[in-house]
Structure formats: structure tokens, C-alpha cells
Amino acid sequence: MAEPTATDGPVDGGSVGGHAADGDPVGGSPVGGDPAGGDHEMGDPVMGDAATDGPVANDGLRGELASATAPAPAPAPADGETEQAERPSLGRRFLSPRTVLSFAFAAGLIVFALRQQDPETLRQAWAQVRGAHLGWYAAALVTYYLNFPVRGWRWRVLLGNAGEPEERQAPVRDLAEIIYLSWFANAVVPAKLGDVYRGWLLRAHHGTAWSRAMGTIVAERALDLVVLVVLMVTTGFFTYGDVLARGAEGGLGACLTGGWRPEDLGCSLAQLFAVGAVLVVVLMVGLVAFARYGVHVERLLPERIARVYGTFSSALVLSFGRFPRLLGLTLLAWVAEGASFYFVGRALGLELGAALVVFFSLLQAFITVIPLTPGGLGFEPILAAAIGLRGFEAVSAIALTVLYRTISYFSLVVGGLVVFLLSKKTRPTGT
């Protein structure tokens, strides 16, 4: 496909071109934020008037855990953006009733699943985890974390596509650190607050318009979802073809319309694949409609909000330039996560097939999309059941799931907290 640039103007006859002055959200986020002065449930940045709004008090997680100072105003982007975005408060969200309830829900799911298992099975699984080979486990940990610089590199490509000048783009190292901090936020707070926090960090420390940053993040999420579903369905058919065939013996239509039946694993998998396929189709149709007709929405908005919407929408549409490179980096990131799961299997002395490795790592990523709990916590029984379907004993299935989640979830919480407390990016700007 031809590579669009920030100055190409409308894409497919309807995407919004660049603006002379990029703005940040005014009165709410263009991707679901609340109006200014409302209850910002998602923690979306709210724009203040630079002439009247003072520095926003730091009530984030650092303020909860250690004494914090009031932040200085964020540096204004070179494109003339003057509005000041409020820092999303991780501490307030972490202690909110919604977050507490989400953790309680996750704990309930885990306890319920554990009660279904024989105590001896759990003891053997724990012994298998404790006896894991440290060398292979270290390889799994390192391989998993290699996907952050890859994702940072991909984000830099997206920002370049969206029109961010080369001299103002953050280094890959800084982008990888911001992504890691956003994954930490998603692991401790539900509803994907980390994505909003990520856009704020990029704006606060590198001057990129928040609306442009969020446009690239939404484009990245869309690309991830499409690749994830396509790979998961493809490898799922290779891995669980016999299970799906048994589930569809009564007819695929009856399987898909008969409601969710956990005891019928074949039908459950078919329903999961169908949901993924529908999501991809809806996403693709939505992106095409947005590119073609989004400009008409901009004309109906007040001037300041229209400027923000225009920057966001043009960034979203233009982000898909240099698509082969984006696709290659996306696949490389997923390969890193799949290799990590393979090394976890080796740490436990298990040989895992390539299709199962890819499917499991993608399924693990898919459950993290569920906004009910932070980082998909509590849905681990689904992962263990997927492994058990391939003939692994319950002991090995539980041990594999637990050991991999120590990397894909608990290491993000522990390591992310350390980075959060030490990183200059989480400190008030100007300090």
C-alpha cells in the first residue's frame, strides 16, 4: 500500500488531514472520555486553560507510596499546542471501589477454580513449579521482555507515519519504557487505563500531542487485535481441530447459536473463534468508515474539539503507512511472547508443539483484553484448560499456566512498580 504522510490530506476520500496546530483533548477524550468537569471514570486527561489552570497536584501511585511534589507544567509541544493535560492518577484508580471489586472478582474466579481441583494435584503442580530449571526460566523471562523494545520500535514507526517530526520523536528506549509502564498500569488497574497513561507520558516528556499519541495507540491496538485473532484462529484449528470437529458434530450453526456450554469444549472454542472473527470484521469496517466519513464528524464539532478530533483521527488513519514493516514488527513481538512460553515448558521438562506455543501465548494475550480484571487476572483456568485439551495432565497444565503467569503478570507488577518508583518519566515534569 502507498505510504501516507501527515500532509497527504484525506485518506480514502475521508480521513482528516493534519492541522496547523495540534491540540490535546478539550473537555474530554476523543476516544470515550467524559466532558470536562464530569466523572472521568477512565482517567482520561482533561484539558485545562493554560492561562488559568495551575500545576495539577500529583496524587498518583507515587504520591500514595512516597511523598510527592506538585508537578510543573508539562513542556508544550513545538507544534503550538498550549493546553495542559491532567496526569492520570494511578493511586486513586488503584484504591477505587471499582478496582477493589475487580481484584475481588478475580480472586473469586481463582478460588472457585482451585476448589474444583484435587488438593494432591495442586501440591504436585506447586512442586513442579518450584523444581523448574532456573536457566530455562531466565531465558523465558529475557525473551518475554525482548518484546518491549520491539514494540517501542513499532510505536516509533507509527508516530512517524502519523506526522511526528523525526527530530521530535522519542528514542526507542524511551518508548519501550513508556510501554512497560503502561503495561504495569494495566496490570494493577482495570479498563486499560495504561493506554491513557501511556499517551500522557509521551506528551509530558516528549511534547507529542496527546491526541496524536492516542491515535497511534488505537491504531496499534487495532493492528494487534487483527494479527492476534488471525494467528489464534489459524493455530487453533491446527491444535484443536479434532476437538472442534467433535463439538460441531451436531452442526456448526447449532453449536454457535446454542449458548455457552462449558462442558462442550469444542463448541466453546468454536464460539471463541467466532467472536474473534466478528471483532475483526467490525474493526475493519469501522476503520474504513472512519477513514472515509470521519471528516464529516469534524465539521459538526466546536473549533477546539474539532482540532483535537482532527489530530487524533488523522494520526489513527495515517498510522497504517509502511504496513509491511508494522506487520513484521508485530509478528516479531508475538514470536517473543511465544518463545517465552516455549522456554517455560522446557523449564518444566515439557516439550510443546509450535502450534500450541503460538495459540497459548495468543490466548493469554487475548484474555488480557477483557476489561473486567487487571491484566486478565482470574482467567488463568481458561489457559490451563486449553493446555489440558492437548493431553497434558492437570498437574502439568496448572504448572505451565502458573509459571508463565509469573512472567506475563506478576513480573509486570513487581518490575513495573520498581520502574515506576525509579523512572524519571513518572516524576513531575520539571524536576
Helix-and-strand structural type: mainly alpha
Strand content: under 5%
SSE order, one letter for each helix or strand: EHEHHHHHHHHHHHHHHH
Number of strands: 2
- The dominant shape is globular
Rg value: 22 Å
Helix content: 55-70%
Total tally of structural domains: 1
Are there runs of 5+ residues with pLDDT below 50, and where? 1-74, 78-84
Mean pLDDT, all residues: 78
Q: How are the strands of the biggest sheet laid out side by side?
A: 1-2
- Measured distance between first and last alpha carbons: 44 Å
Specify the biggest β-sheet: 2 strands, antiparallel
Count the helices. How many? 16
Structural overview:
This protein has helices spanning 61-65, 90-94, 97-115, 119-130, 134-145, 147-161, 172-188, 193-206, 210-247, 252-257, 265-299, 303-318, 323-347, 354-368, 380-388, 394-422; strands at residues 47-48, 84-85. With 431 residues, the protein is mostly helical. It has one domain. Strands 1-2 form a two-stranded antiparallel sheet. Helix 13 crosses helix 14. It starts with 46 loop residues before the first strand and ends in a 9-residue tail after the last helix.
Which secondary structure elements does this structure contain, and how are they paired or packed?
Layout: E1 47-48, H1 61-65, E2 84-85, H2 90-94, H3 97-115, H4 119-130, H5 134-145, H6 147-161, H7 172-188, H8 193-206, H9 210-247, H10 252-257, H11 265-299, H12 303-318, H13 323-347, H14 354-368, H15 380-388, H16 394-422
Antiparallel strand pairs: 1-2
Helix pairs in contact: 4-16, 5-13, 6-7, 6-13, 7-8, 7-16, 8-9, 9-11, 9-12, 9-13, 9-14, 11-12, 13-14, 14-15, 15-16
